[in-house]
Amino acid sequence: MNSRKYTCDDLTVPRPPTGKTPVRNLRVPDEIWRAAQAKAKAEGRTLTDVLVAYLKRYVSTPPRKPDGAD
């Protein structure tokens, strides 16, 4: 029996070796969440697919300067 523990990125939540990506949590207003789910469904996509695609685009660009910074 394998007694090795697997954890998520924060190293505090035990996770079995499923081969899947860890579940993440975020806060989004209900109206935006529902509209995004509806649009993703109409496009035949999951909201996870949409968010991952957006995050890939986001991290592939250089950081923007904070508002007000010159």
Summarize the entry for a quick read:
37% of the residues lie in helices and 0% in strands.
Structural class: mainly alpha
* Helical amount: 25-40%
**Total number of helical segments?**
2
Whole-number mean pLDDT: 83
The end-to-end span amounts to 58 Å
> Could you tell me the strand content as a percent range?
under 5%
Topology:
Elements: H1 30-42, H2 47-59
Provide a descriptive summary of the structure in words.
- The protein has 70 residues and is mainly alpha-helical.
- The chain has a domain at 30-59.
- The protein contains two helices and no strands.
- The chain is extended, with a radius of gyration of 17 Å.
Jot down its keywords.
0% strand, mainly alpha, 2 helices, 70 residues
